[in-house]
Design brief:
alpha+beta; three-stranded antiparallel sheet; 1 helix
Amino acid sequence: MPDAAAVLAYSLREEGTAWMWRVYDLEGELVAAGMAASKQTAQADLAQVYAERAETDPN
């Protein structure tokens, strides 16, 4: 996972047949969430969100 200072934490968990992911900012606010059919796809989605956050908020 790329390091993005704009992101404090993320969660990734399996719910039934889907993988749910969430990304939180430094204030603990939810900034992105999604669902994927596989863990691998969910991790790729998380990496994309991290990359986008790093580009828009370099702090």
